[in-house]
Design goal:
- It is a single chain.
- By secondary structure, the chain is an alpha+beta fold.
- It is built from four helices and three strands, in the order H-H-E-H-H-E-E.
- A three-stranded antiparallel beta sheet has the order 1-3-2.
- A hairpin with a 2-residue loop joins strand 2 and strand 3.
- Helix 3 crosses helix 4.
- The relative contact order is 0.12.
């Protein structure tokens, strides 16, 4: 299954109200856990590095207008 098929399946399920808001939050948390997704400040604290170091030298993505570091390697 590719990402487009997965998006379609999830999107259709959401439109049919198969999942509650709590279910969707749990899905986001599960995926965030696999990505080791952290806000830049939280990542800096856990890794003991500067904000600029994280911003310039890590995989930073913007989700919902918030910047996160992905560090799942």
């Amino acid at each position: 299954m590719n990402i487009n098929e997965l998006q379609n399946i999830i999107g259709e399920s959401i439109e049919k109200n198969r999942y509650s808001n709590n279910d969707l939050v749990q899905l986001i948390e599960l995926i965030g856990g696999y990505l080791n997704l952290k806000t830049i400040p939280n990542y800096c604290k856990s890794e003991n590095i500067s904000y600029n170091g994280a911003k310039k030298c890590r995989n930073v993505v913007k989700i919902f207008d918030v910047k996160f570091v992905i560090d799942n390697e």
